[in-house]
Amino acid sequence: MFASGSRPAWLMLLALLGFALSSWATPFQGYGWHDQQRVAQLLLLLLTCGFALFARVFVAGRFVWSVLAILALGGVSALHAELPVWAMREWALQAGLVILALVLAQLLKPESAQWAVACIAVVVGGGLALQFFVGYAAAFISGIRMLDAFTLFSGFSNPRFFGQFQIFLMPLLVALVLHCQVKHPGLAGLVMVVLVGQWCIAYALGGRGLILGLLVAHASLLFLRIEFLRFISVQLVAALIGLLLFWLLFCLVPIWLGWELTLRDTLRPGLSAREVLWLEALELITRQPWLGVGPMHFSASINPVAAHPHQMLLQWASEWGMPAALGVMMLAAWGMLSAARWLRRECVAGMDAALWVGLVGGLILAQVDGVFVMPYTQIWMTVFVGMALARWSLCQPSSGMQRHLIMLTGLLVAVVLGDVVIAEAPHLPEIQQRFIELHAIGNRPRFWSQGWIVAP
Known about the structure:
The chain is mainly α. The chain contains 17 helices and 4 strands. It has helices at residues 7-20, 33-55, 62-79, 84-107, 111-142, 149-152, 159-180, 185-205, 208-224, 229-257, 274-287, 312-320, 322-345, 350-365, 375-392, 400-424, 428-439, and strands at 59-60, 146-148, 260-262, 396-397. The strands form 2 sheets. It has a two-stranded antiparallel ribbon. Helix 7 (159-180) runs parallel beside helix 15 (375-392), helix 12 (312-320) packs antiparallel against helix 13 (322-345) and helix 14 (350-365) packs across helix 15 (375-392). The mean pLDDT is 92. GO terms for molecular function: ligase activity. Keywords: Ligase, Membrane, Transmembrane, Transmembrane helix. Its main location: membrane. Residues 195-327 form the O-antigen ligase-related domain. It is found in: Membrane.
């Protein structure tokens, strides 16, 4: 259990649970999945800023100077952007995620807190799987005589966003299976059922980036330690059983009943128009190579595909500038190399393998998808970074100049995001409807589900 004086940790875990459950239902009229999860994210980040400003529970280290330098470059870019208000919102969002990672690195040091996070993931993943298979059963009860996998999933406005969450969920499920199988075999079996169900859903939704990210991340485990073979074996068994379940439910049964079936081919070729986005991002880089066009400002130029480049490095380079993008790339590389060295020499457990798979898989998926754009995925990526810092680093509670700079950053984040929550979020449906009537263009998610930020 938690040690005494752990009230902030319990409060943070409850806040994480509240955020995670934003994928279960949309109780507020006019707010879709994306907008609801964005509001939940902003509330969580505001709470995090409260931890930083008042409780001062966050870690520090030499790497934090690099993070602060990148944020400083982003701040300068935002002030020079065409729409500085929107640019500052994106800057505040990214800065808030940094503070959340530093706070979690302090609060999640107890291993019991880390397993509590895994339990939150199981609850959410189990609920989403249950909704999916209830929808499958409803197709039989309703008599519509067709199966469309895209209408069966819930919790996200796009199946790709579900896949982004799964790349963090699946390794946590494996870690929990291994953790519980001796003392709590019944619970381990239940978690395994959820894992198999998630694999079946992944095949049904046809997420190519998800499958690629998980394959590469699990393969990299073997280069770290042979002890991770057990972790990989559990994941492989679940993947194979999930494939069998998918074949039974979405191939054999519809053919036998003569039903119409709608699925995406996981092995389908092509870039799905991503090349259009990447070329546009490159054009923005050539236009403003040093400071970029401004945070979130890829969304200021309307295109027929998406409001973000679907590529992490191109997004940072085009919006924040090449120096900031290079800093992000070097920081990520340093972090993963440091993690690999730690995993090679220290005593490891299933949670370590899960964190490695989630981080590597997330970075791979971010090269072809909006992992660093969608609110639900942003938070889970940040949670994994925070837990990795808690387990693998020697970070200590902050002090001196770093503490003051982080607190100042937290104050700026609270002001900017607090204004969004108070002044804009309550009226979001009306604002978006007016935008659609004025500009007659479709929704492409970025900050909100209507992600374009064209000047009025």
